[in-house]
Amino acid sequence: MSALMIQRLLAVIFLGLGGWCVVTPGVVERLVLRPEYVTGSATHLLLLGCFGAQAVLCGTVIAFSCFTPITFLVFGLVGSIPFFAFNFYFYFIEQLFTNWMLLDFVGNIGILACGLAGYSAAKRESAAMGGLT
After folding, report:
1. Left, alpha or beta for 12 (phi > 0: left; psi -120 to 50: alpha)?
2. What pLDDT does residue 132 have?
3. DSSP letters of 14-33?
């Protein structure tokens, strides 16, 4: 798979999950939070929508940027590892999340995998072009 295809897949992760938060924040709240934490308040829906909008912005930037090998590597690590810690803490320790939040965990695995695979593919493509990228 080419680095560009991996980059577009990375963008889809952000656009898909972020878009879901923008379009239906109430559904996201009801599915991912345990019932005792669901309020349906305008503030919660606003914050989920803002979170989703930032993810959509990130996905758009990813889709239209020119990633280098180091961009893939840094994005894969920084874009996933802190979120693994977040998901672990609020799923296992504080237990705010339902099993639906595991979709985010899967997304984070995808971000890490795309970052590492993109790094490898971009390095390979760069070497094939004589290191010009």
Report:
1. alpha
2. 57
3. HHHHHHHHHH-HHHHHHHHB
What's the rounded mean pLDDT across residues 61-86?
95
Q: Residue 45 in contact with residue 109, Cβ under 8 Å?
A: no
Place of tokens 């893939």: 72
- Token digits of residue 70: 């180091």
At 97, phi and psi to the nearest 5?
A: -95, 150
Give 102-105 contacts, CB < 8 A, sequence gap 24+: 103/17, 103/32, 104/17, 104/32
Tokens of 55: 């993810």
Q: How many CB atoms lie within 10 A of CB 67?
A: 22
Structure confidence by residue, pLDDT tens digits, 28-52? 999 999 999 999 999 999 999 999 9
AA identity, residue 55: A
DSSP-derived secondary structure letter, 101: G
Backbone angles phi, psi at 96, to 5 degrees: -85, -30
Look up the pTM and report it.
Answer: 0.89
| Count of H-run helices and E-run strands, the chain | 6, 0
